[in-house]
Amino acid sequence: MVEISPSILSADFARLGEQIAAVKSGGATMLHIDVMDGRFVPNISVGLPVVQSLRATTDLLLDCHLMTEEPDRYVPGFVEAGANMISVHEEACSHLDRSVNLIRSLGVEAGVVLNPATPVHALDDVLEAVDFVLIMSVNPGFGGQKLLPHTLEKVRRIKRTREDRQLDFRIQIDGGVNLTNLPVVVEAGCDIVVTGSAIFGTDDPRAALKNMRRILDETRLVEV
Ligand code: DX5
Ligand code: ZN
Q: 190 is in which domain, residue-wise?
């Protein structure tokens, strides 16, 4: 089943608890938390205290996307704070295999992220060790950008590699996904779809999430 991971980056932080309850009632099973350090990406967002507070108020899976330099420094803190999934950027890790193993050794799912300009073959030698691969469909740092179409070809390519090598990591996509392009994104082969402004940028996040789930169901019907 394809999952939606609502990105809280576009949420109203003054009403975060309420907005999370809304997406949960709309069928969300996880939340995407964008951690930006103002160095790896040109923006600063949220960190450990937000993850701790979320953990205390929700049982949704917490999917933490670290857009930071030296992510290994922060991984144990995010695990401690209650993350269930942690992804790190290939471009930010000098020793990617070590970073992935660190995450896994702490008992959470490990993901590796590729920026739009990084080719999928950069992951050839780490795929056996990852739980998921996140293909960025925008340049990271901001919500509300337009999906870059060439990144869907990367999704198709990594899916083919997964089949060829009989692996079972999940494929996540992040950036610019909306109600209109969701079917194409899913048909390319994504298992987890991150979406921020298309949910929290609306007046009714619950309805937006439900609409997305309906589109996913229809897309699945077309496939069979
Ligand atoms: C971008 C972030 C995304 C962002 C997605 O750097 O990684 O998770 O919140 O937002 P939308 O769906 O608005 O592109
Ligand atoms: Zn993200």
A: 3-223
